[in-house]
Specification:
This protein is α/β, with parallel strands linked by helices and about 230 residues long. The protein has one domain (about 1-220): Glycerol-3-phosphate (1)-acyltransferase, CATH 3.40.1130.10. It contains eight helices and seven strands, in the order H-E-E-H-E-H-E-H-E-H-E-H-E-H-H. Strands 1-7-6-2-5-3-4 form a seven-stranded mixed beta sheet, with helices on both faces. The model has no long low-confidence stretch (mean pLDDT about 90).
Length: about 230
Amino acid sequence: MGKLIYWFLHTWLLAMRQIGWFRWSVTGLERLPVRTSGGMIIAMNHVNWMDIPVIGALLPFRYRLSWLGKSELFARPFGNWFFSTMQVIPVKRGKRDLAAIESVVDALRGGAVLLIFPEGTRSRSGVLREGRGGAVRMALQANVPIVPVAVIGTEHGLGGSLRRKPVHLQIGQAYMPEAAADDGSNVVHMKQLTDELMSRIALLLPVERRGLYAQLAAAQAQPETTA
């Protein structure tokens, strides 16, 4: 049922793009890991709730997404059915939810494409906020690649898309974070890995939206990541 619902929404949004109503575009699809290679983490900046339908529509259907959702969404029967069916993994906000982490790692090892917002919350302005280390930790535990992605234009919300304001998704090069000798638990090393991830996302954004990572991104600039 979940796959059918996802397909319906994906097809409807694709049709809205094809008729020119939603001016959503994407570059870098060729940088996605081959789908048959296993699970992966899509790490993206977070601006608005529209980020999820945008990336869900712009990625090929075979890259059907799972993502993390606050546990409150599952409190009522319909919400529990819908979000579970859509492969959303519940997580308790403000806590280190070990059960959720275990579920995520199992899903990744099973081939899931997991969307994570490493900022942890919406920036709303589109300027990149400080990142958290959860995406990197999960990638290390599951031994899967991270795909850095940037979205531009969702700060206008659904109304912006209905008014045909452009939204663009930029996909960066997938990479494998390198574990430290202690398997990545070292605090300094994890901070370095998180900064690396955020810098890769920042490189996909316009300079004025790179926030705390503007200098790191400039130092690591690569030709193929021009937004």
